[in-house]
Design brief:
By secondary structure, the protein is of the alpha+beta class. It contains eleven helices and ten strands. Helix 5 runs antiparallel to helix 6, helix 5 packs antiparallel against helix 7 and helix 9 runs antiparallel to helix 10.
């Protein structure tokens, strides 16, 4: 039993597992080939209470981040990292809830909770990832509108998204301190989406580019205060990075159990693979690191739920979780031999899907920079 979770969290976990078994598992391979998750899955997830479960009522389901963590973990443990619920529920919706007006919350959040409106976070640009000073998208005030021009790339949920939170410069002379957030609805003149990007992993996660060409946005689409996006992003990143760490840890746990089961049945030179000491040592190392990581992440989760998780600790969580996951999955894949490289085996998908987690939410190098500042 993990002390960070209450009985209601564990009951919810059973519900999430049933949803995954019934609504995702039978169809996931087809979605991977299609390069997109159907919008119908989001509506079913909304009906079953899997979206915005940590968002306060009346706009969300009134749970806490423990409920959100259950969804994150169970999807990752089942090896379905391509499902973009966490971006929608744990990144996009909280921005609207924290910084939006009551009119903005009522306009978008209930539909997001029902799965009728899918959210995306549009921060990254072709020439600007973690370097916010390099953002080139511009939003210029023109009467009661803003005129938005720019391009975003690597946008998760981008194909399906009916609402994108877009980062743009409103005061270029101020650099990162002159950035603002805008809520941009799909279908507006001047807003176009590129085709799904061809990635090496997480194929069912619809990722695309977004283009804004003289897009006229009503001024009430500004999220929060003008030129305040840097502070907003800083406040929200701890939760986002912990969410990524939780995905990495649960993915490793799931693949460790699957690999152990596989090598119990596979024979090489007349012996089960698990009967070789090297195989057991690989499993032992993965379990030792996984258990140590889980204890730390549960402490981080408890801190977040108490409002006490700081940016440096969140960076430590993401760095450790994603680096441990990547190394351990590589070693587990080796135990499958050539079959590990075959797409039909879950370990191969987990291995390729995991690579993105060392890039999402700030690269491992950025995490080290954040952690290292404490020594300056």
């Amino acid at each position: 039993m993990r002390r960070v979770f209450r009985d209601d969290h564990e009951l919810f976990r059973d519900q999430v597992r049933r949803f995954i078994a019934q609504e995702i598992a039978p169809h996931y391979a087809a979605w991977e080939k299609a390069g997109v998750t159907p919008a119908s899955l989001w509506r079913r997830a909304g009906e079953e209470g899997l979206l915005n479960c940590a968002l306060p009522e009346p706009y969300g389901l009134g749970g806490d981040f423990g409920h959100a963590a259950v969804v994150i973990e169970e999807l990752a443990r089942a090896n379905y990292l391509g499902i973009g619920f966490s971006i929608h529920s744990d990144m996009v919706a909280p921005y609207v809830d924290a910084f939006g007006t009551e009119a903005q919350k009522a306009r978008w959040l209930p539909a997001m909770t029902r799965g009728e409106l899918i959210g995306a976070l549009a921060l990254t640009e072709p020439g600007a990832g973690s370097d916010l000073k390099a953002i080139r998208s511009r939003a210029v005030r023109d009467g009661d509108h803003y005129v938005l021009n720019g391009q975003k790339t690597f946008i998760t949920n981008g194909v399906n998204a009916g609402l994108a939170i877009v980062l743009a410069s409103t005061a270029p002379d101020l650099g990162a301190r002159g950035l603002s957030l805008f809520c941009v609805e799909a279908g507006l003149p001047g807003y176009t989406k590129g085709a799904p990007l061809d990635k090496i992993g997480q194929h069912s996660q619809d990722t695309c580019e977004l283009f804004f060409d003289d897009l006229r946005l009503p001024a009430d689409c500004l999220l929060g205060q003008e030129n305040a996006a840097f502070e907003y992003l800083t406040r929200e990143l701890a939760r986002e990075r912990l969410a990524i760490a939780l995905r990495a840890a649960a993915s490793l746990e799931g693949m460790l159990e699957e690999t152990a089961e596989y090598i119990r049945g596979r024979k090489v030179f007349g012996r089960r693979v698990i009967d070789y000491q090297n195989s057991r040592f690989i499993l032992a190392n993965a379990r030792a690191q996984s258990v140590m990581l889980r204890v730390f992440l549960d402490d981080c989760l408890a801190r977040l739920m108490a409002g006490e998780l700081d940016a440096t600790t969140a960076a430590i969580a993401k760095l450790n979780a994603t680096e441990i996951q990547g190394k351990a999955l590589d070693e587990l894949l080796q135990l499958y031999g050539g079959y590990g490289y075959m797409a039909e085996y879950g370990i191969g998908r987990a291995w390729s899907d995991a690579r993105a987690l060392r890039l999402f939410g700030g690269t491992s190098e950025i995490m080290r920079e954040i952690i290292g500042r404490g020594f300056a």
